[in-house]
Amino acid sequence: MIISFVLDGEARTLEVDGGARAVDILRESCGVTAPKEGCGTGECGACTVLVDGVPRLSCLMLAAQLDGRAVITAQGLASDGPHPVQEALADLGGVQCGYCTPGIAVTAAEFLERHPDPTREEIREALSGNLCRCTGYHKIVDAVEDAAKRLGSGCGRDE
Amino acid sequence: MPSVQTIGSRSRRFDAMDKACGRERFASDEYPEGMLWAGALRAGVPHGVIRGMDTARAKAMPGVVAVLTAEDVPGENRQGFIHWDMPVLCGDKVRHAGDAVALVVAETREVLSEALASIILDIESLPVVDGLDAALAPDAPRVHDLETGNILKEATLRKGDACEALTHCAVIVEETFFTPQQAHCFLETENGTARMDEDGTLHMTVSTQAPFRDRFEIGRALGLPPNRLHLTAPYLGGGFGGKDGATVQCLLALAAMHAGGRPVKMWWSREESLLAGYKRHAARMHFRLGAEADGTLTALVCDLDYDTGAYAHLGVEIMALGLEHASGPYRVEHLEANGRCVYTNNPVAGAFRGFGVAQVCFAFEGVMDRLAAKLDMDPLELRAKNALRPGDRNGVGVGMISSTGMKECLAGLRGHPFWQSRDQWVREAPPLTRRGVGIAAVHNGMGYGRGLADSAVAKVRLTEEGRFRVYNSVSDMGQGNSPTFVQMACEILQQDESLMELVQPDTERSHPSGSSSAGRTTYTYGNALIKACEAMRDKLLHRAAMVLMVDDASVLELVPGAVRHAVTGQELPLAALVGMLHPDDRFCIGEAMMPVTQDVPEGGEAFRLGFPHLIFPYAAHLARVEVDELTGNVSVSDYVAFTDGGRVLNPQNFEQQVQGAVAQGLGYALWEDCFAEGGRLLTTDLSNYVIPGAGDLPDIESHAVETEEQSGPFGMKGIGEVGMNGPLPAVASALLRMGLPMTRAPFTPERILAAFDGDNS
Ligand code: FES
Ligand code: FES
């Protein structure tokens, strides 16, 4: 089948197999490798992307489900320069191997839109679907807290 | 950001922003043009004889490029880099369910999985050796045909006469402890791509901790000359030891040899990774510790059995570290440590952060806590009283002539509010909740140890544009060695980070250095890099002296982007200076080797490689733990770590290492267990093999105890491993103080509830 969607702000039309997974289409056919695969079964969150603004696990979606949607990956999140949450993750040490980070960045960015002033507990809960094997989460939580401040004070991204 | 990142400053990692923005390319992000997919058929049976294999249907499928079996493997068909006992493809016998028996190369992933499913495998099952008891039984079936039965290696380390000394002790404690197999669960599973070019050179990009050594392992297994193997190792999406040694390498190389020059990709699924990837050794540890009435440790006798699974991998070396660290970071006059490394039909065990030491810390700290209770002593004071000091000899007799900050770490805990207020915190437990505060003192030898040259060769280049390029040659699996290399180069060359470039390991561009492992990565390559950068600085100052027409280079200094005359302020841009240098003259190389101890304990001859160690990082950990009396659920409310890693080069990176290791250690303590029954793994994916998520862990407080390690780059020691060793004993220590003397990890609710009923088995 043929699907059309907007990927990180760019319109794409491509022919896909009905059974193809969204994560593979994004990575292989579109060359956008920010969504990572860590499990393929919805446990790790590394493949998270925003579909029409909502965090979705691209390993559990069919490519067909992207038709007509707008998809934002961590790469797209940084298209006008790093998003404040990406800045904060980098500045505060929330990044080690970095394999979980693109998924965490999009999850956290969307969460902060809904919860501009979260507690650490709320941040931990929001990230509970994103596994990270390197950091122990402490600095990731620090970073999301800090990004909330950056966003709130308007000193984040230059628009 | 400061303009020149100085050593000791908290600064953002050089690699962080690209990773945060999803721009960094890992090995798994490579999809070369015209690529094929390779995949292995796994035995599915833990122990058996291969009677036959019908690959006809797979071979006939459109889109299948090759179906390979053991007969197609040239060379020795054996993997492993110290003990090569693991076939690339099994031909006659399978020894664990994850053994690879056939390899398929296909146009697409769909065809690949269909072809793999169509292979008919006829395996006659053999009785399964499902654990230590089964393996050590007198009439046990043999996993390998060894004269020693299933014992791969047996060894005893001795200092003094521990059995004799025990008979004179005022007090003796005794216990047996068990630890599970733990999976690394790096988020990026094992993968790589490979292509064989026309002249027979095999190019590979692999998620690997040891690109240089891989060439020898692949070469030997497949009969290829190592210099025809070209490996690149981009940033890894985690490693922790699980990518130290061939994972996809040999299979992938074999696939590429049958792909007609096309690139091939292999990427294990999470299920395949759990089934076929390496694990931390499960261990059984029986300890007898004796002390004088005032708590002075006198003698330790212990028996350690490590389940190495179906193949040796690094089992012997891992057991050696277990024996070496069995008496903890303490002075113990008499030691007898007996070890056996045992084959079973369980998944293959191998290197994992805390390499054999994470296991014994549970046992050693467990008996220390029992001793403290028996003597009615404060557990922290008992530890402090016996803690190794500079000049002491450790458990196996090695003189502590390197930096030794164990006492200082414990002193940090002693003064910490969580320790000071421990009784009050316990008293204030909510209803139906038990509370305990536990501590642990741990250490972890650094580097390969004696007998195995631990060396690195660093290269730094001045580019055409007048920038500096560091050629890293030890993989960065996330621990942050390579950004630290940039920081070191910035400091010595006095450059801004923006003038730095960093190349990840590439066997054609960088120079041979050891693996990313053993806490030696930053230390060894760092020492080499310091020399390379100092040589570069001196070279540039001398060349600039000619241009600036001064006869004394000491009046010149490097400043960001230029050489500057300190007196006149005149500057010569590096971009201009580079034009005067011959291309061959634009790089500098430095090399370093880690020092080793000359003290070899009795029994140590059994370990030719990697034993004993000279330099140790130390740590003291504290956990505030709560147990729900109704559900048996254990939660850690607060965690504190004091770590002696020598000088801290970047506090941010230091804390990352500690916090990440503690998280992995808490997973080990509370949840993680590769549960196999009859050799069949039941924890097959991340829904039933549980690693901690953000909601499961507390904030982790990290404090540095900065000793100065004279031999280390800028005084540092490697802390990648030591943090892993504290959480299990610290949590166990808290549980013991609540009346739950746990001896088997992980501390699942079922085990806790059983312990409430007095059952600790
Ligand atoms: S890869 Fe999608 S959740 Fe793990
Ligand atoms: S940084 Fe490695 S998995 Fe999160």
UniProtKB/TrEMBL annotation, chain A:
<keyword id="KW-0560">Oxidoreductase</keyword>
<dbReference type="GO" id="GO:0051537">
    <property type="term" value="F:2 iron, 2 sulfur cluster binding"/>
</dbReference>
<keyword id="KW-0001">2Fe-2S</keyword>
<feature type="domain" description="2Fe-2S ferredoxin-type">
    <location>
        <begin position="1"/>
        <end position="77"/>
    </location>
</feature>
<dbReference type="InterPro" id="IPR036010">
    <property type="entry name" value="2Fe-2S_ferredoxin-like_sf"/>
</dbReference>
<protein>
    <submittedName>
        <fullName>2Fe-2S iron-sulfur cluster binding domain-containing protein</fullName>
    </submittedName>
</protein>
<dbReference type="GO" id="GO:0016491">
    <property type="term" value="F:oxidoreductase activity"/>
</dbReference>
<dbReference type="InterPro" id="IPR001041">
    <property type="entry name" value="2Fe-2S_ferredoxin-type"/>
</dbReference>
<dbReference type="InterPro" id="IPR051452">
    <property type="entry name" value="Diverse_Oxidoreductases"/>
</dbReference>
<dbReference type="InterPro" id="IPR036884">
    <property type="entry name" value="2Fe-2S-bd_dom_sf"/>
</dbReference>
<dbReference type="InterPro" id="IPR012675">
    <property type="entry name" value="Beta-grasp_dom_sf"/>
</dbReference>
<keyword id="KW-0408">Iron</keyword>
<dbReference type="GO" id="GO:0046872">
    <property type="term" value="F:metal ion binding"/>
</dbReference>
<keyword id="KW-0479">Metal-binding</keyword>
<keyword id="KW-0411">Iron-sulfur</keyword>
<dbReference type="InterPro" id="IPR006058">
    <property type="entry name" value="2Fe2S_fd_BS"/>
</dbReference>
<dbReference type="Pfam" id="PF00111">
    <property type="entry name" value="Fer2"/>
</dbReference>
<dbReference type="Pfam" id="PF01799">
    <property type="entry name" value="Fer2_2"/>
</dbReference>
<dbReference type="InterPro" id="IPR002888">
    <property type="entry name" value="2Fe-2S-bd"/>
</dbReference>
From TrEMBL, chain B:
<dbReference type="InterPro" id="IPR046867">
    <property type="entry name" value="AldOxase/xan_DH_MoCoBD2"/>
</dbReference>
<dbReference type="GO" id="GO:0016491">
    <property type="term" value="F:oxidoreductase activity"/>
</dbReference>
<protein>
    <submittedName>
        <fullName>Molybdopterin-dependent oxidoreductase</fullName>
    </submittedName>
</protein>
<dbReference type="Pfam" id="PF20256">
    <property type="entry name" value="MoCoBD_2"/>
</dbReference>
<dbReference type="Pfam" id="PF02738">
    <property type="entry name" value="MoCoBD_1"/>
</dbReference>
<dbReference type="InterPro" id="IPR037165">
    <property type="entry name" value="AldOxase/xan_DH_Mopterin-bd_sf"/>
</dbReference>
<dbReference type="Pfam" id="PF01315">
    <property type="entry name" value="Ald_Xan_dh_C"/>
</dbReference>
<dbReference type="InterPro" id="IPR016208">
    <property type="entry name" value="Ald_Oxase/xanthine_DH-like"/>
</dbReference>
<feature type="domain" description="Aldehyde oxidase/xanthine dehydrogenase a/b hammerhead">
    <location>
        <begin position="21"/>
        <end position="127"/>
    </location>
</feature>
<dbReference type="InterPro" id="IPR036856">
    <property type="entry name" value="Ald_Oxase/Xan_DH_a/b_sf"/>
</dbReference>
<dbReference type="GO" id="GO:0005506">
    <property type="term" value="F:iron ion binding"/>
</dbReference>
<dbReference type="InterPro" id="IPR008274">
    <property type="entry name" value="AldOxase/xan_DH_MoCoBD1"/>
</dbReference>
<dbReference type="InterPro" id="IPR000674">
    <property type="entry name" value="Ald_Oxase/Xan_DH_a/b"/>
</dbReference>
